[in-house]
Amino acid sequence: MLSFLAVSLGKSLRFLLRLVRRGGGSALPGLIASFLSPNLLRNALARLPEGVVLVSGSAGKSSTTNALVKLLEAHGLRVFTNPSTANIKQGLFSAVLKEGGLLGRIDYDIAVLEVDEGHGSALLKDLSPRLVVLTNVLSDQLDRFVDPDFVIGKLGKLAQAAKESIINAHDPNLRSLKLENIAGAVCLAKELEQSSDAPSYALRFDSPEQLDKCSVISGTSPMVVDVFGTAIELRDPNLPHALNTSLALLATSKLVKFDPEIAQAVVDAQPAVFARNELTEIEGKRVNLRLVQNPTSFQLNVDELTRANSPLMLMAGSDIHDPSWLWTVDFTSLGRVDIVSGSNAYDLALRLSYAGVEIGAVLTDLSEAKSSFLSLEGELPTILFSADSMRRLRRLTGLAK
Amino acid sequence: MISIFSFMPEHFNNNGDQGNIEVLSIELKAAKVEHAAIDKIEKADFIMFGDASRAAMRHYKSELEGYRPLVRERFSEGLATLLVGSSYEFFAKDLGLELRQVARKSEFVNGDYFGYRNTEYDLEPVTRNGLFVATSLYGPFLAKNPGYLSELLMGLGANPELKPERLMWIEKIREVSGG
After folding, report:
1. Chain A residues within 8 A (CB-CB) of chain B?
2. Quick one: A252 and A290 in the same domain?
């Protein structure tokens, strides 16, 4: 009865919130439902015949989850998942509200859930995973997590609670966990380890032992991963993406009867993850949108920009709680930023200024920033924004789904 | 020639602390004062120990222990020095401070000095003697505390010429983030 009330109220609230805020309305209904019916998520997931898979880590959670969902669906499973921006408790409850019936039941075979690296382990009673996939540990969000040691500990707890785990063994932080339930691990061939594109992780000064068994990614154009004896080609030349896709492939082979042809077709057709680097249209103008969530992704995006990416708007929203990390990004290559916006616009402007970047205008009013930006001429108008600014801009421009 | 030393800058840069060196260098250049980074701490006019991860603090512990006498001396003489975050905590006893663990404070501090702190030790946000500053505030500190930056520049023989738009942005940051 309580579940029925919680779901009814949550669904109604979700509907109303989405009427007034397109693309929004995910957190509050979930929060209320979790308060009214704390067992809603646990009960919904417990009925799934193939159980629960969790994907966590500092970066690459969305890409890995997305690839794993696509692979499992292609193998015939009905997969329940959560949006990438809803990976803490209320987001997971909201996903149940969205997909479930009035009694909170979800009609799927398996759940593949992206969970926040700091919060996931606190939800273990609700989630009871059969498999945990760990992507990496970066020195990221220190205002939340204080130190990578904390994240390493949380991810270890998460993985140990599952029957099996699959890890990115290229990351020494994950190797240092010395998990006893490893069912698969991805690593890089020597030539790729030495590549400048090889990802770097939270700093360590020791060298945890390599794993005895590892699925090696090797070669170039395309790279190839050995999925327990089956070679799958990875056409995306980005090495971090290759690691994420490989983790998803290993997980798939542990969850279903692996069909190499189906898997290859899914990998070949894999689209870019939502808004990471997207071409869209705003008020009749073609605009390049790039999501930046941490020093690594900000730096990668800045480094990818060319002269064609003009005019340029950088937006730092309220999700950047302590903007100090902006100072770890090297912006000097930008030369000029036309508009700086978002609730942390002045912090970003100060950082850009000391990096020698010329600034056109600092506009904290989103509507004014958007209008000014769209009035500027240039080959490819480009916006780099944090998640909060992305949501606000999407709502303002009608891009929110 | 002003000489600048930063301890293991690639590893003591948890919250963009090396931005302090960037800011100092840019302002010295704007004031037309010659300056250079050096790797001999004993000869440096300005030294900085930034904030580091626990892994880095563990790794460099014995090396840091060796700097205690130098830090004590610079503190007592008020020499241009910046200790940030975990380095402040590490050298606290050399500044005559007691390190007591308390509930973690993750917050903006907006008083005589501005910045964000994330600490589980009961230390003042800033402990200062002359141009020696030990702080739990990230930011970087020099960029967001133009008062101290000006004093530091003058202490290093420069006539500070801070850009008005930067000062205006700092005021706005204090309004937006500091409440």
Report:
1. 139, 142-143, 146-149, 202-205, 322-328, 343-344, 346-347, 349-351, 353-356, 362, 364
2. no
